[in-house]
Design the sequence.
């Protein structure tokens, strides 16, 4: 984590007003939450739903050594070490950028409509076999989360892996400029946030903003199967970047030569000469492409094949991403409740339908959010994907998911499709009819919080 005196901190974030007697106080890390403040932290009062300035005194009482203060706010506390700034969020971002510039650490930035967190975890697992790595925790990939992650990095860390998320144009550009990555990965272009951005083309443009802060001669690892990313080829003469493609097509620099999938893991080889067999303990063939992107990064770091193989074998994935669990009753749960888009839901359904060794298969789906004017059709299309010979029951939750159910009933029949308005009722129904040899896949957008069903089943 960042360790600097207050005078240096003030200079790093372009603040002012710190009283002379406080300049040599040593800051150890930063926090935006007075409830979890640690001794020696700099408290940064962000204005969101609640105004963080109301909690400055509480933060100081709990051990914060100093606080920022927005100049537009009146009545700053007296006899308190304060650095005054124009905007506390901007100051946080500026501080993170200044700290990043002082670090020798290599930075890997990851973005894309789906697969960001999985790729982040894979890259971390691979590179950690030889280097000291710090990665984004959970889903801290926002305008606040990313700078906080950078400020947690130790000066002894050799690599940081940063996930970059967005909901509108300009956000990835800002994050990339803060992080100044040496390597960037674009996993894929889907339909997430199309309600805000209007088209897949605009989604691609938003993801391509990650190139803004990429260092000269940096590496761009991207999905070569995506036509909307083909414009990267046209950028080759404009910026001094290097490019490496991955995907299904044989034209990609890295593509699978063989793939084997079962209920426990995925195994594959690549087109590389003398390719080993890579094994990942994750469900779903789509994870092969996440692994390809991660392998490309490992090779950029000059890692041996056996270390890359071991890194993928030892992979630990962030919760709620195709997470395999066992219920209290003994049946299997696939918890993929973190988020949902048409492409990720399709991949999850495809994975469930191809699994063997289970008696009954339950599919629990909730609304896919932020899909814009075509949201009804996107949900109907999901209902059409469900094969009645491979899925036994469909349970849906939310007003939009009714379109999934109504479409699925045309093939599955009414008795196998249930629409719910209460998540507790979903859990009760599953517990009543599911047996130890059955499997339940649960997926929905973040705002639907389907992990509540998972908790109940566990």
Sequence:
């Amino acid at each position: 984590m960042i360790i600097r005196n207050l005078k240096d901190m003030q200079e790093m974030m372009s603040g002012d007003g710190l009283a002379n007697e406080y300049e040599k106080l040593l800051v150890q890390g930063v926090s935006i939450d007075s409830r979890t403040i640690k001794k020696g932290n700099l408290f940064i009062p962000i204005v969101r739903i609640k105004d963080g300035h109301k909690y400055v005194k509480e933060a100081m009482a709990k051990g914060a050594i100093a606080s920022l203060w927005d100049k537009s706010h009146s009545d700053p506390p007296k006899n308190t070490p304060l650095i005054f700034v124009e905007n506390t969020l901007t100051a946080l971002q500026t501080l993170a950028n200044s700290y990043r510039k002082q670090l020798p650490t290599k930075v890997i930035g990851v973005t894309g409509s789906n697969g960001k967190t999985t790729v982040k975890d894979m890259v971390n697992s691979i590179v950690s076999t030889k280097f000291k790595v710090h990665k984004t925790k959970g889903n801290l990939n926002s305008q606040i989360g990313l700078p906080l992650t950078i400020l947690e990095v130790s000066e002894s860390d050799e690599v940081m892996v940063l996930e970059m998320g967005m909901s509108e144009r300009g956000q990835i550009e800002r994050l990339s400029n803060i992080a100044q990555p040496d390597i960037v990965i674009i996993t894929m272009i889907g339909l997430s946030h199309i309600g805000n951005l209007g088209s897949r083309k605009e989604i691609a443009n938003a993801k391509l903003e990650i190139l803004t802060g990429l260092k000269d001669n940096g590496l761009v690892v991207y999905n070569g199967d995506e036509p909307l990313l083909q414009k990267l080829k046209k950028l080759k003469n404009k910026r001094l970047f290097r490019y490496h493609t991955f995907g299904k097509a044989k034209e990609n620099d890295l593509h699978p030569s063989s793939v084997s999938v079962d209920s426990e893991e995925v195994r594959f080889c690549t087109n590389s000469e003398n390719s080993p067999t890579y094994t990942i303990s994750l469900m779903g063939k789509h994870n092969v492409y996440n692994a390809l992107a991660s392998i490309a990064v490992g090779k950029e770091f000059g890692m041996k094949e056996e270390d890359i193989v071991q890194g993928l074998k030892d992979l630990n994935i962030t919760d709620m991403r195709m997470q395999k669990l066992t219920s209290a009753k003994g049946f299997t749960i696939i918890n993929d409740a973190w988020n949902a888009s048409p492409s990720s839901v399709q991949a999850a359904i495809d994975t469930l339908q191809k699994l063997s060794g289970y008696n009954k298969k339950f599919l629990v789906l909730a609304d896919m959010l932020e899909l814009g004017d075509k949201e009804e059709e996107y949900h109907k299309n999901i209902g059409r994907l469900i094969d009645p010979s491979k899925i036994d029951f469909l349970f849906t939750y939310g007003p939009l998911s009714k379109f999934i159910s109504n479409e699925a009933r045309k093939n599955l029949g009414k008795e196998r499709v249930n629409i719910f308005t209460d998540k507790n009722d979903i859990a009760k129904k599953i517990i009543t009819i599911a047996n130890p040899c059955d499997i339940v896949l649960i997926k929905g957008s973040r705002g639907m919080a389907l992990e509540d069903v998972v908790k109940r089943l566990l």
